[in-house]
Amino acid sequence: MTGYTMLRNGGVGNGGQPWVLRWSSRIRLTWLSFTLFIILVFFPLIAHYYLTTIDDADDAGKRIFGPRTGNELCEVKHVQDLCRIRESVSEELLQLEAKRQELNSEIAKLNLKIEACKKSIENAKQDLLQLKNVISQTEHSYKELMAQNQPKLSLPIRLLPDKDDATFPLPKSNRNCRLHNCFDYSRCPLTSGFPVYVYNSDDYPFGGSLDPLIKQAFEATVRTNVYVTENANIACVYIILVGEMQEPVMPKPTELEQQLHSLPYWRTDGHNHLIINLSRKSETQNFIYNISTGRAMIAQSTFYDVQYRPGFDIVVSPLVHAMSEPNFLEIPPQVPVKRKYLFSFQGEKIESLRSSLQEVRSFEEEIEGNAPADYDDRIITTLKAVQDSKLDFVLVEFTCKNQPKASLPTEWALCGERDDRLELLKLSTFALIITPGDTHLVISAGCAMRLFEALEVGAIPVVLGEQVQLPYNDVIRWNEAALIIPKPRITEVHFLLRSISDNDLLAMRRQGRFLWETYFSTSDNVFSTVLAIIRTRIQIPAAPIREETAVEIPHRSGKAAGTDPNMADNGDLDLGPVETEPPYASPKYLRNFTLTAMDIYRNWNSAPGPFHLFPYTPFDPVLPSEAKFLGSGTGFRPIGGGAGGSGKEFQAALGGNVPREQFTVVMLTYEREEVLMNSLERLNGLPYLNKVVVVWNSPKLPSEDLLWPDIGVPIMVRKM
């Protein structure tokens, strides 16, 4: 420490040491610099050499510390990415391989199933072929059995005698005439078509006495009737018109009888003849009563009980509209049900008026003593009491304001003109019809005229007298359109009429309107009804409908219609019946000519009205506008004879021996396109439906842009 101080002080203290110290300091600095130089130069060289020696000792491909270029560094990163991709792809390949093996296993199983199905199909084909052979053999055997067990049907032999048939049995009297003993069936075989020969009245003297209007109307009707023939040799029925006759030129009964017996085809007794005596007025006389008509049938509006032969003679309606059609626009509507008067009656009978002035006997006195000749006195008293009671509005008049119409004895004469009577009936809910007091007079022209007028304007007829024989009574169920009450129940009539419900009143009025329009209104209806009654009695089928060409309206079909949910599950019915080309022909004989014989009793006793009076097949009088269902076969087929339901029920109702039968829906429309389209769409999928015929009743054709639904069957649009 002292030396150091001395050095700093310039060598003060020891004399020659300052120089040595300065030299030592220099040597230290030089050594330190040299050492640093050696370290900084040789150490990197040694490290470089050492590192270079390590790289040379290793594999050239695994050098880590050796110098690398920039391209080599990039390749390393790329390789690492590829390695990662390779690992991912390897995993996916392994998964795909597993799936492939699984799919191959499933394919192998499916191939086994396909082979099994092919074997099943082959077996099914063999079974089907065997079944077809069995069915063919069965059908052949069935045909052989039917040919063996069913006799061959041959048409009846037509007997056309040129002279009297001596073997024809004679009844004890003409009063006992019925079809089985007074009608020659041999002239009317089932396949004859019911030919009718009509005499020309102008060729005989009594023709000049006929009412001109009735004669003209009758001749016009005959010219258009399908059953009338000009060949008298093949005729089944011969018709002669003898009335209504005019009073001044009316022949004597003996003269008319001789003229009838001199008819060329009278054949001594007049069998298969029909004498028609039409009445246009209420005062028509029964001049045939004193004439011997033999076995001839009589059709007129007035009968006595000793003259009328049930099931043989025919009670016809009066021919009011002889040469003119009724004006349907003037017919009152069917509603309201109840009208101003509960019931009404206008008439006059001199005998009843005289006896009504006397004191009326009680029921007890009548029971103890002799019964009165008729109940007109009690009827007058009872009806006047109802009118005076003011319980209901009723109108009864037993004296005519003007001169009454001519009438038969004990018959109530009509009062006033026809238009006046119709105006009163339009205001009446019920129309009283009092039958003649003479019980031997079963029907008169006056009663028939009252019935005609009541049905025409919708007044429900109330017939007092159960012995009456109303027009066409053997085929029309009059209890559905009129009330027939015995005269002794006159005191209960008021209670009975008030107890009938509105629904029953409307039903009876509708049925009465149908009967009037169908059987009473025109001369064509009267004549056709008379012929239909005779044809039905002798069980001859109606003539087929006369074909008329209709204009077809072109139309476009739109999209397919949806299926009605109610028909969504029809099972095997969706396929419909087996149809061939041409369509399967319906049997023409077995069903056609047994239809009338089998269905007469059922129709007359269960159906509301005569289903088969007209020559067009059975129909429903309650719903005349209901759509009809026609068979598609070529044979005769009933219309509207089936019950309601789906296509299967309609197919079954068309006939038990026609299993392949389809049906056609006929629809009537009048400018209601939207309703029509909806109705057509609901028919889609209906089993056994063959086609749809739309009858376009409007004079205006359907719009051109109207798209008709596609329901899977043809839709034919016809303009009538």
TrEMBL record:
The lineage of its organism: Eukaryota, Metazoa, Chordata, Craniata, Vertebrata. This is Exostosin-like 3. Residues 192-500 form the Exostosin GT47 domain. It is found in: Endoplasmic reticulum membrane. GO terms for cellular component: endoplasmic reticulum membrane. Residues 663-719 form the Glycosyl transferase domain. One of its GO terms (biological process) is heparan sulfate proteoglycan biosynthetic process. It is a single-pass type II membrane protein. Keywords: Coiled coil, Disulfide bond, Endoplasmic reticulum, Membrane, Transferase, Transmembrane, Transmembrane helix. Belongs to the glycosyltransferase 47 family. The keyword Coiled coil applies. Pfam families: Exostosin_GT47, Glyco_transf_64. Its main location: endoplasmic reticulum. The chain crosses the membrane at residues 29-51. The keyword Transmembrane helix applies. Residues 79-148 form a coiled coil. GO terms for molecular function: glycosyltransferase activity.
